[in-house]
Write a structure and sequence with these properties.
By secondary structure, the chain is α+β, with helices and mostly antiparallel strands. The protein folds into 3 domains: about 220 residues, outer membrane lipoprotein receptor (LolB), chain A (Clam); about 190 residues, Cytochrome Bc1 Complex, Chain A, domain 1; about 180 residues, Cytochrome Bc1 Complex, Chain A, domain 1. Helix content is about 30%, strand content about 25%. It has 21 helices and 29 strands. It has a 13-stranded antiparallel sheet with strand order 22-21-20-19-18-17-29-28-27-26-25-24-23. It has a 6-stranded mixed sheet with strand order 3-4-8-5-7-6, sandwiched between helices. A hairpin with an 8-residue loop joins strand 1 and strand 2. The chain is globular. The chain starts with 11 loop residues before the first helix and ends with a helix.
């Protein structure tokens, strides 16, 4: 967690983490049991004057099955205006004057399938930093402020088979926002500090990926079915992220973001003629060219039948995913397969829900889906969770229901319900102009015919019971099932070997990130020393900074502990390594003290020694102190380098790393680093400094905004600051 002081990280999160670690864990809720159906109860109808009361049962009342509904009217899809600019960019325009809004998006033929094998995650980071890294003329933070002030947005991302850049604004701001949108498309800057922040974010995701058992089962199932050695089944590791450099992002962007590789769609409150003229003016002179983008990597997969278990002893349920490779949207049998999957496990009337959940009470959540992709086969999956004790029985019941679906035709009622479910959802594909235009452009992007959705609709309506049986026998292969289970095998009622399939144990170990310091060129080191000299001078000079023996600071503001809350903290420091923090938090007062080698924490649960992970965090806080960072040239354990224009990187032998963004005056405007949590997992942190004031000859920020994991955590203002006030170690170490 981060520090809320003006010169180093706030320990608000450290305190919360300690209290959480000291508290007993809450017991997990047992799987819910289905309620037994109530018997028919009598209903007494009031008697009319002169007559007897009538007693009827609920069964005698009209049923919902007696309700009659008109068929949904045919969907009327407007046809967007289409044209191609001389530079090759395809454009789609769709007017909609219901609201004074204009939105748009660009599809770029790229994706993480083009990631180099040793730089997995490159496309994802490129999609993130394309937006956050700003343009050649303005930083991402400056553009954030501009867009927020006019209630507009510009967003970017890159997925498996396409990149997207979108915008949204009020009609009167169209010119301004589309100009910003164009700059991101044509001249993204990929500033170094945002590249590093995106890498920190991705590392944090890697560190947390085994927290959620449902996430584990989905990830491991996909990797097994698609193949872990293919771009379709890759799992990103720390080493992949460490291999990515700013230039890699720039090269990726330049390779794929060129006019002939882009489809642009705009919809909203405008005249098509005016919008066409605006787009021609914005993009008409963008003549950047690249060779045609090659096809996406060919997909090849072999079945991976068997049982794969990931041990997670801290859960009381087993999360499972069962299935094999699916198909493509354009497959002729996709409509029948979707109906078959709906009958098997979609909705409360499906076979799996009725049998596994309602009748047997094994699972509260279960479902089936025949996955289909535009270019890449999807996955056929049966997924859910069950009590640990019923793990094997649940899997056996699923296999039994799958065999039944392949053995005989479904009932007329099952077929009708499933087809109605699929067909009635059709209208939601086109209930907004955005969805309509998005679907039209996507079909064009992936090379599907324009009438594909209507042909699909007709095919679903034509599915018969014989079709469902045929596709179930042809495509649903029990012998090819990959079964992934995440849970505590010691709590399983029966061993997984009962399933009579090979049982494999999945290794969830996350390879540790590299900790060695990178080689620093003499030029980068010299630039780092020059940046530090600027910082020293701006903060009051090396002599003044070195003369700081102690400081005493009080700050107030807000922090997020699941929700916003008022906080107050007093932070005291005596060089070289004595520190105390007294916090007023929503759950009570907390005090933390460390002499650099040991310490204690006092809170609602009493006083206790600092746990090892917390002591390590406190030591990291001392490293992040702006005053001590400004004196890093006097510490032989630290190395300096330039990490970008006006970005100073400082490392020490303990593995601490931080980056300081200096403003025009040389003062740190931002500090960026990873904060290790109580769980040992890294969290990306940004501290943003402002309102610099002179105290006893030293410049210090009186306003600090702290962001962790990309979200704001604290906003604090210093209300009192003293330097060299004569603090004593006895004063700091006195326990409450």
């Amino acid at each position: 967690m981060t520090r809320a002081s003006a010169s180093r990280r706030a320990s608000l999160g450290v305190v919360c983490a300690v209290l959480a670690a000291a508290s007993p864990a809450l017991a997990q809720t047992a799987a819910r049991q289905p309620a037994k159906p109530a018997s028919a109860r009598p209903v007494v109808r009031p008697a009319a004057p002169g007559s007897e009361a009538t007693v009827r049962t609920v069964r005698d009342l009209p049923s919902w099955k007696d309700l009659k509904f008109r068929p949904l009217p045919p969907v009327q899809i407007p046809h967007p205006e289409q044209f191609t600019l001389p530079n090759g960019m395809k454009v789609y325009l769709l007017e909609n004057h219901e609201l004074p809004l204009v939105s748009g998006f660009a599809l770029v033929r790229t994706g993480n399938l083009f990631d180099p094998p040793d730089k997995k995650g490159l496309a994802e980071i490129t999609g993130m930093v394309l937006r956050t890294g700003g343009t050649q003329s303005k930083t991402g933070d400056q553009l954030d402020e501009t867009l927020e002030n006019i209630a507009a947005s510009v967003e970017s991302s890159i997925g498996e088979t396409r990149g997207e850049l979108s915008f949204s604004c009020l009609r009167e701001n169209t010119d301004q926002v589309m100009a910003i949108f164009r700059d991101f498309m044509t001249s993204a800057a990929f500033r170094e500090d945002k590249v590093e922040l995106a890498k920190i974010h991705l590392r944090s995701s890697i560190a947390r990926r085994n927290d959620d058992p449902a996430g584990i089962v989905s990830r491991e199932f996909s990797s097994l079915v698609y193949g872990p050695a293919t771009p379709y089944g890759w799992i990103i590791q720390y080493a992949d992220v460490d291999n990515i450099r700013r230039q890699d992002l720039i090269d990726f962007y330049r390779r794929y973001y060129f006019p002939a590789n882009i489809m642009l769609a705009v919809y909203g409150d405008f005249s098509s003629a005016d919008m066409r003229a605006r787009i021609e003016k914005l993009f008409g002179d963008w003549n950047y060219k690249q060779p045609p983008v090659p096809p996406f990597p060919e997909f090849k997969s072999k079945p991976a039948p068997g049982v794969f278990v990931a041990e997670k002893p801290d859960v009381t349920q087993t999360f499972f995913e069962i299935g094999h490779l699916g198909g493509l949207l354009r497959d002729k049998d996709f409509p029948a397969l979707e109906v078959a999957a709906d009958i098997l496990g979609s909705g409360f009337t499906s076979r799996l829900v009725r049998r596994v959940r309602t009748e047997l009470g094994y699972a509260y959540s279960i479902g089936a889906n025949w996955g289909a992709g535009f270019l890449t086969p999807g996955l056929f999956t049966i997924s859910g969770s069950t009590k640990s004790q019923s793990t094997v029985e649940t899997i056996q019941t699923i296999e039994e229901e799958l065999r039944k679906l392949r053995a005989r035709e479904v009932t007329d009622e099952e077929l009708k319900t499933a087809k109605d479910t699929v067909l009635n959802s059709f209208v939601f594909f086109f209930d907004t102009p955005a969805k309509t235009l998005n679907r039209v452009v996507l079909y064009d992007y992936y090379g599907y015919p324009k009438d594909f959705i209507f042909a699909y609709q007709k095919a679903v309506a034509a599915v018969t019971k014989a079709d469902v049986l045929r596709v179930a026998r042809q495509y649903l292969k029990p012998e090819n099932l990959t079964i992934v289970a995440v849970g505590n095998p010691r709590e399983f009622g029966k061993p997984l070997s009962t399933l009579k399939l090979p049982v494999h144990t999945l290794d969830l170990t996350i390879p540790e990130p590299r900790r060695e310091s990178p080689s620093i060129s003499s030029q980068s080191a010299a630039q780092g020393r020059a940046l530090l000299a600027r910082m020293q001078q701006a903060m009051g000079g090396g002599a003044k900074l070195a003369a700081v023996r102690d400081f005493d600071r009080t700050a107030e503001g807000s922090a997020h502990f699941g929700g916003p809350a008022r906080v107050k903290q007093r932070e005291r420091f005596i060089a070289p390594s004595y520190m105390r923090e007294d916090q007023q938090l929503p759950f009570g007062a907390v005090a933390v003290y460390s002499d650099g080698d040991s310490g204690w924490i006092a809170g609602p649960q009493g006083v206790q020694p600092l746990p090892g992970p917390v002591l390590k965090q406190m030591q990291a806080e001392m490293f992040h102190n702006l005053i001590t960072l400004a004196l890093s040239d006097r510490d032989p354990s630290r190395t300096l380098s330039a990490a970008g224009p006006d970005v100073l990187e400082i490392r020490d032998r303990a593995g601490n790393v931080t980056r300081l963004q200096l403003d025009a005056a040389g003062l740190p405007s931002k500090q960026m680093y990873e904060s290790m949590q109580m769980t040992g997992k890294p969290q990306p942190v940004e501290e943003i400094f402002s309102d610099w004031r002179e105290v006893n000859g030293v410049m210090t920020p009186f306003h600090v905004v702290i962001r962790q994991g990309g979200a704001e955590f604290a906003d604090l203002k210093v209300v009192d600051m003293k330097i060299n006030s004569g603090l004593t170690v006895q004063e700091l170490s006195k326990k409450p």
